[in-house]
Design goal:
alpha/beta; 7-stranded mixed β-sheet; 18 helices; 18 strands; 36% helix; globular; binds NADPH dihydro-nicotinamide-adenine-dinucleotide phosphate; binds the ligand O=C1O[C@H](COP(=O)(O)O)[C@@H](O)[C@H](O)[C@H]1O; G6P_DH_AS; G6P_DH_C
């Protein structure tokens, strides 16, 4: 195994040749070697971080300002700074102390791993996301040996449950890796023994103080590192953050908070949310999650671009005709209509997931793989984007459809959705990046629910070959003969490049073929769920895949005006049947820019 980037904990390349072929060889690593790799890279990175942090006084302290008096050593030695409105003096002093403690304490230089603990508290543990994603991801991390020795998981919600009830609830969703399955039941039992439940209100400091007491019992006087995952509706984020911060922060280690989307519904509400969060947390404590950033192929985008000579030189307006970012679901908003109606597909998918992918796709080479360097480049892309014009947006909403004797509901059939709702369940948009690299290249986004298929893809259509000697042999449809790179994010992950090739034989006829890196054929390891990667990053303090507040501001600045216009003008969506390909308007929009949408998943086996 050859290490390529020693500055990042999980970036290592297999020394095996990774080819565009359907080779069945695999580069699986055992859980213990994975853990060792992580330790090696993480410890060196953390040590580097510690030096940078002390030098620049940049990394913020992890003890909430309002409660530092009640906590251990670091807090006791530093008095609050009066008249320092954002407490910078205090933050800087605490930063030095705690980041050194944190860095020395976590790897190598610390006394012992036995002396630090990590607790993950899932706030909203009784909810859908917690059951579906968070607990299973935590178990997967445990199963892979990625969680620290002393870890505890707490579920927190208003529902009355015992520890046993929580364990029973969680156990129903746990699965072991298909490719391993070693000691599966034993590992599940061990994991469940580390899970506890505390019932409380989200706005009760007393209830969080009681949680704090229980956490302290588990921590047993060791360094306490606490991660809160806010898996609750957004209207109660601030209450929960306030109470967790004031009553249940770590006294001598770090306290971090993962915040689920939606981060507001426009520029103003997002800024207000950030402002409120920052009353209790520093930016470094806030981990805004966009789970698409944790998806394997999204994570691989930068590797594809920056570690392969053949792609980066082509990654410009000179060679790329258009880029398509496509998301489709073959089911409606069933069960989530209440949430969805207040947001719509543009806020639900485009402003975050697709825009994040676009930023990673289009950014310049970052100075390094460090979180801030990558996020700086993403912000630059977002800030270079041209305001979106209303005429460059098409919206749709699904209507009822009967097929094969089955009637599928309309969006407005959901009881939690008003009958006259104009909320889009489908949208397509043309976006442009006004910088030297991308000037004039259309970035087309399309996202929809209740469509005929399910998937997410990035499609890169290249320009025509100038003066192509083989035009005569290609036929009349030159567009179809241009190269296309497809990054299939899900399902059935793949990266393939469509090329023109001579059909074997005595004649000279060309056809289109695929150089195909099909993950299922190439790698035998199961692809981790996005939430596993992101939870582990949050535990390790790696912020690269989380959204910084200026990124969020830039994303909202781009979409807020057009969202307002759509709503103020009460633009009527184009209705499309449940299970169809969506509104035809999306095709007219693409045609305006001489683009033909790639057909999601259609050429899978071509
Ligand atoms: N579910 C999903 O697939 C996704 C969810 N998200 C986001 O994750 C977060 C959690 O989502 P999800 O699990 O679906 O949410 P839920 O609606 O299931 O809520 C989670 C828990 O919060 C408590 N709760 C719900 N409504 C209220 C309320 N009005 N007041 C106080 N407490 C309430 C309930 O716990 P109790 O009553 O026990 O206190 C509930 O079990 C949300 O911010 C959502 O937008 C993001 C992406 C996907
Ligand atoms: O954030 C969201 O994502 C899901 C789709 O996520 P995926 O990982 O299953 O592709 C989407 O269904 C939901 O509406 C949205 O809030």
């Amino acid at each position: 195994m050859a290490t390529l980037y020693s500055t990042h904990s999980r970036l290592h390349l297999s020394s095996q040749t990774s080819s565009f072929s359907s080779s069945s060889s695999s580069s699986s690593s055992s859980s213990s070697s994975l853990f060792l790799q992580r330790l090696t890279f993480s410890s060196s990175k953390r040590f580097l971080d510690a030096k940078v942090s002390l030098k620049s006084q940049h990394d913020s302290h992890q003890i909430p300002l309002k409660t530092h008096q009640q906590h251990g050593v670091a807090a006791a030695s530093v008095a609050p700074v009066e008249n320092d409105t954002d407490n910078k003096g205090l933050k800087d002093k605490l930063s030095s102390v705690t980041s050194l403690k944190e860095s020395l304490g976590e790897f190598g230089f610390k006394k012992d791993e036995n002396e630090s603990t990590v607790s993950v508290t899932v706030v909203g543990a009784s909810g859908d996301l917690a059951k579906k994603k968070i607990f299973p991801a935590l178990f997967a991390l445990y199963y892979e040996g990625c969680l620290p020795k002393n870890f505890t998981i707490y579920g927190y919600a208003r529902s009355k449950m015992t520890d046993a009830d929580l364990r029973n609830m969680v156990s129903k969703t746990l699965t072991c890796r298909i490719d391993k399955r070693e000691n599966c039941n034993e590992k599940m039992d061990e994991f469940l023994k580390r899970c506890f439940y505390h019932s409380g209100q989200y706005d009760s400091q007393e209830n969080f103080a009681a949680l704090d007491k229980k956490l302290k019992e588990h921590e047993g006087g060791r360094i306490s590192n606490r991660l809160y995952y806010l898996s609750i509706p957004p209207n109660i984020f601030i209450d929960a953050v306030k109470c967790a911060s004031l009553s249940a922060s770590s006294g001598n280690g770090w306290t971090r908070v993962i915040v689920e989307k939606p981060f507001g519904r426009d520029s103003e509400s997002s800024a207000a949310l950030t402002k409120s969060l920052k009353q209790y947390l520093t930016e470094d404590q806030i981990f805004r999650i966009d789970h698409y950033l944790g998806k394997e192929l999204v994570e691989n985008l930068s590797v594809l671009r920056f570690s392969n000579l053949i792609f980066e030189p082509l990654w410009t307006r000179q060679y790329i005709r258009n880029v398509q970012l496509i998301f489709a679901e073959d089911f409606g908003t069933e069960g989530r209509g209440g949430y969805f109606d207040n947001y719509g597909i543009i806020r639900d998918i485009m402003q975050n997931h697709l825009l994040q992918i676009l930023a990673l796709f289009a950014m310049e080479t970052p100075v390094s793989l460090d979180a801030e360097d990558i996020r700086n480049e993403k912000v630059k892309v977002l800030r270079s984007m041209r305001p979106i014009r209303l005429e460059d947006v098409v919206i749709g909403q699904y209507k009822s459809h009967t097929r094969g004797g089955v009637t599928y509901p309309a969006y407005t059939d959901d009881k939690t959705v008003p009958n006259d709702s104009l909320t889009p369940t489908f949208a397509a948009a043309a976006l442009f990046i006004d910088n030297a690299r991308w000037d004039g290249v259309p970035f087309l986004m399309k996202a929809g629910k209740a469509l005929h298929n399910k998937g997410a893809e990035i499609r890169v259509q290249f320009r025509h070959v100038p003066g192509n000697l083989y035009n005569r042999n290609i036929g009349t449809d030159l567009d179809r003969a241009t190269n296309e790179l497809v990054i299939r994010v899900q399902p059935d992950e793949a990266i393939y490049l469509k090329i023109n090739n001579k059909v074997p034989g005595l004649g000279m006829r060309l056809d289109r073929s695929k150089l195909n890196l099909h993950y299922a054929a190439r790698y035998s390891t199961e692809i981790p769920d996005a939430y596993e990667r992101l939870l582990l990053d949050a535990i390790e303090g790696e912020r690269r895949l989380f959204i910084r507040s200026d990124e969020l501001d830039a994303a909202w600045s781009l979409f807020t005006p057009v969202l307002k216009e759509l709503e103020e003008k009460r633009i009527i969506p184009e209705y499309y049947p449940y299970g169809s390909r969506g509104p035809v308007g999306a095709h007219y929009l693409a045609a305006r820019y001489n683009v033909r949408w790639g057909d999601l998943g259609v050429d899978i086996d071509q």
